[in-house]
Amino acid sequence: MGQLNDISLVAQVVVFKNTRAFDTLVKKYQSPVRRFFLHQTLGDGELSDDLAQETFLKAYTNLSSFKNLSSFSTWLYRIAYIRGKKETSGLEEREIDASCQVEQTKVGEQMDIYRGLSRLKEAERTCITLFFMEALPIEKIAIVTGMPAGTVKSHLSRGKEKLSNFLKQNGYDGK
Prior knowledge:
Layout: H1 2-16, H2 19-40, H3 45-61, H4 72-88, H5 107-118, H6 122-133, H7 138-145, H8 149-169
Helix pairs in contact: 1-2, 2-3, 2-4, 2-6, 3-4, 4-7, 5-8, 6-8, 7-8
């Protein structure tokens, strides 16, 4: 039903130039897209907001190219992935600022997760974020990233192992 509603909203925007319909799509997906970028940028809230805004602008200007070959959310994540890839390359070397703004009560744990994510290759971090934090299935991650499903599984496996090892080394016992 959600997919059908998204298609209806897209049609209203494309055919009738109904900007309120697009506002509905933005409200529905702004938190997940921002959260995706927050993990990809290792907690940089300002950059995450900028990237999310750019993603929605790009989606709006290209909405007529949405062909419903996948769900709207998959199409939107694909735009976010391509947009974010340009901005987040090189994050592996970037130091994580201790004053990183995180809106969670367990700031220390969140910072440790970001530190762990920073040690992953970009493709591993993307797959881990989309699978574990955005709950996308492997098939959708493959569509979003343009990687074969087997490659996604490999990145997930390696990323999960690296992240697990990092967290164990920093006092998390896996319980």
